[in-house]
Amino acid sequence: MNDHLSQLEPIDVTLQVNGTPVDVSVPAHRTLLDALRDDAGFKGSKKCCADGECGACSVFLDGTLVNSCLVLAVETEGSDVTTIEGLSVDGLSDLQQEFLKAGAVQCGVCIPGQVVAAEDLLRTNPHATATEIRDAMSGNLCRCAGYERIVAAIQAAAETRVTIS
Amino acid sequence: MSGHGKPDDQITLGSAVGESVLRYGGADRVSGAQQYLSDLEFPDTAHVAFTTIESGCAQINSIDTSAAEQLPGIVAIVSADDLPNAKRFGISHQDRPLLATDTVNFHGEPVVAVVAESTEIARLAADLIEVDFTPLPGVYDLDSALADDARLVQEPDVRPGDPLNHSNVLETAEYAWGDVAADEPSAHVIVEDTYNFPMVNHFTIEPGGVIARPYEETGVEVHSPIQHPFLLQRILASIHDLPLNKVRVVAPDPGGGFGGKQTPRYEPLMAHLAMRTQRTCRLVLSLEENFQLMRRSGCRIHARTGFAADGSIVFHQMDVDFHIGAYADVAPRIMAKGSYVGAGPYRIPSVTVDARAVLTNTTPSCAFRGFGAPQVGWATESQIDAGARALGMDGLEIRRKNLVDAGEAFIRGDHEATADGHWHESLEKAAELLEWDTPKPPNRGRGIAVGIKPGATSGLSQSLVRLLYDGSAIVYAGTSDMGQGARTLWKQILSDELGVALEQITIISGDTESVPFDLQTSASRSTVFMGGAVLMACEDIRRRVLELYAEVTDVDPDTLDHRPGTIMTPAGTVPLVEAAQTALGKLRGEFVGQGTNRLRGKSGHPLGGDAAFYEFNATAIEVEVDPDTGEVLLVRHATVGDVGKELNPIQVRSQDEGAAIMGLGHSLMEQVMLDDNGCIRNLGALDYRIPTYNDVAVDMLSASIENEDGPGPYGCKGISEGALLCTAGAVGAAVADAIGVPIRDLPLTAERIWKAMQARDSATADN
Ligand code: FES
Ligand code: FES
Fold first, then answer.
1. Edge-to-edge strand order for the sheet containing B103-104?
2. What is the pTM of this model?
3. CB contact residues (below 8 A), chain A span 47-86, against chain B
C-alpha cells in the first residue's frame, strides 16, 4: 500500500511556460502534458493517444518540437515550454489565420497540435514542398482528415513569410 | 478546386449564403481556447475510474474492494450490487445495464466504478480492485454467434416478449421486389460471392468523457460531448425518474463525433454517481477506453447478381449479417437502413435483401458515418464490377447502363424510392476528374463506384432567433457543431434573411436549459432540418417587424411586404434592421422569432418514413500497386457529391475530403482485431492505424453537382457522409484492375494484396 501511495508523492518543478515562470507540484510519473493541462491551466494542448502517436499534445520544449505526453513533468525542471497559447499572444498568427481560410479546421481538437507542428516546420524548413510538408506533419493525426487543407494553409503561410523576410 | 475562406468583413451584406464564410468558432479552435469536455473545470470535483477485466465474456464471481478502500481520498466504490433497482437503458431496446451485471459481455465493460479525490487515486483504486471471474464461451464472430449451440449474448429475460430472444439475432429486415426466379433465365452472366467489411473504431481525437453534477436540489446536470443532447436528457429523465426540467444536459462541441457520440453510454451511470455522492463527478476516457465505447459494425454479405449480355442488371440478391456487439444501441436501425439501399441506386427488376443484426460479445457498435451503407455498398459495388469483368465492360460503362435517372425508382414495391437528383452528372464528373479514358502506366488500376444513403426519415428541429434593438442577433439552435460547421450556416442564413452583418450574430447551442428542442444531429440532417427552422424563425421575425412597423408608422399592413433583409413599403424598401428599430421605438426591446421544422414519419414504411433526401456520391480512384510488396499508392482520388447547393463551399470541401479520406481507413488499413478471449488486440494508436497525411492521394479532388434540387434551404441536401459511402468500392475496383484479381475482404492491406498476387501467379503457373 505504501508503495502505491509513494507513487503519488508530489515533487516540485519550476519551468517557464510561454515566457512565464510556473511552479507545479506533481507525482513523479505525471507527464508534461498533464502538468500543463491540469496543474498549470494550459488546456490548449490536447490528449488523445497518450502514446506519442497522434501529435495532439505537441509543444516546443526548449525550442524542440515534442509530444508532451511522452515527457515527464519532472524532467522539465528549468526548461522553457511554448504551447499553442504562446503562439497567439497578440491575436492569431499568420499561420492560424491561414488554417481558418483554408478550411483546415473541422472539429478542431487536433488543431492546436497541428499548428504547433506546422510552426516548427515553417521555422526549420521555410521552403518545404508539399511532399515535405506531408512527411513532416505525418505524426499529427486528424480524424476529420483536413490534411489537404492543412497542407494548403502551411503553404500559404510559408509563401507570405518568405516574401516578407 | 481548393477555394478559399473569406473573413466576415469581405462578404457583401445579403449574399452570405453560397460564400466560403469562415467557420464560426474557428478562432478558438486554432488558438487552443475552445473548451472541449476535458477542458471544463468545476470546483470540488471528484474523479471516476473503472475496473474492467481481460475477457470478452465472463461470469463475475466476486469483487474484492478491500485494498482499494484503504486508500485515502476514496469517495465511493460502486458495482452492480449497489444498484439493485437500476433500470437498463437503450434506444430501441432497453438492454444495457449501468455496470456489468452478473456477467461481463464485452471487453472493457465496466465492472466497478471508483469515485475519488484525484484521477491518480481513482485509477490506482480501480486497479487494486480484484474481480474474480470465470471465463464463459463467448461468441466473438458471426459464425460462433449464429451456431446452433451458441451461447446467448443476452439472457432471454433482457428482451422479454421478443420472439427472437432465444437467439443471437436481435432483429431482421427483408426487402424484396420483382421475381428473381422468373428473371433469372434472362441473365447472361451470374456472379456470386461473399464479402467482408471489418469492425472499425471511430478514433475520435477527443476520446470523450462525462461530467455529472447535482442540479437544482433533486436533479442532475450532465456535461457530455453528445451529438443528441435532447435524447440524452430524455433517457436520463426516464431511468432516474426525473422530470425533464430537472435534467440539464450541456453538450460542449464534440472533438469529432462521426456518429460515435450519438447515444448515451456512461452518462446514466455518471448521473447516478453524482446524485449518490452529491459531488461533481468527472470521467475522461483514454483512447483505449474509447475503443471499448464505440465502433462500426462489421458486416458479411453474400451476394448473387445476374446481368444481361448488354450489362443490364437483371436481379440482385443479398444476405447481409451485421456483427453488432453486445447491446443494441442503434445497430438494428443501421442494419435496416443500410440494407434498405443494399441494391444501390440502380435499375434492377428483381431484388431480395435479407439482413440480420447479430449480437456478439464485442464492443456495442453504433452509428458511424454512412450508417450501414458503406458495408452493404462494398458488396454491391464489387458485384457490379465482377459483372463488368465477366462481360468485358468497364466500371464506368456498366454504371452508365444501370444507374437510375432523376425521378426513376431504384427501390421498388410498396414503398418505392426515386432518385432525387441527376446522379449521372456526378458519375460523369468523377470519371472526368480521374481522366478515366486516358492510357494507364503499368501497375496502375482505376476504379469507379457510386454510393447512396437515405437521409433522415423523420425529424423535428426547433429554433429561436432574437433580433436585438441595435441590429445584432442571437440564434438558438440545438445542433451539435462537431466539425461540420453547422453554426456557420445558421449565421449565413440569418445574415441574408434579416440583413444582419455576419459579425453581429451569436449562436447558442448545446444546452437543454436554454436552447429549444432538436431531435438529433445525425444523418447529415442539420442543414436541411435545423437550417429550415432557422430560416422559418427569420421569416417569423420579418412578419412581426412588418406588423409592428405598420402599426407604428400608421400604414395599412396589407400595403407592406417583406423580403430577405428588407421590408417593402409603397414608398420604397426599408432595410429590415432599420424597420425593426422604427417599430420598436423608444421602449426598445427586441423581436423573437420561432421556427419549427417537423417531418412526420409514415406508418407502415419499413424505415418509418421516406428519406427527406438521399446522399449520393460517385468516387473514382487510380492506384499504383507495388508488384513486389502489394503496397498501394493512391495516385488520384476524385469524389463528387450531389449536394443540391453548396451553402458554404469551403466547408463542403472540408467535409467531402474528410469523409473521402476517412473512407480510405476501412478500405486500406483499419480493423479491430480480437484474441480468443474476445479481448481487443490492437487497442489504441500504437497498433491501430488510421489515415495520415501520407495516405492521401497525390491528387485529391473534390467537386459537387449543384442543381438546387434538395429539400433544404436554397435547395440544399445533406452532404457530410457521401464521400465515404463508396470509397471501398472504388479502391477495390482500382486494385483489382491493377493486379488482375479482385479481393473481397476489407481492408485491402499490403499483405492481402500480396497474397492475392501470389495466388494469381501460382494459378497462372498451374495452367
Ligand atoms: S496525446 Fe501525445 S501524441 Fe497523442
Ligand atoms: S479537425 Fe477534427 S480531428 Fe482534426
1. B103-104, B58-64, B130-135
2. 0.97
3. 47-51, 53-54, 56, 83-85
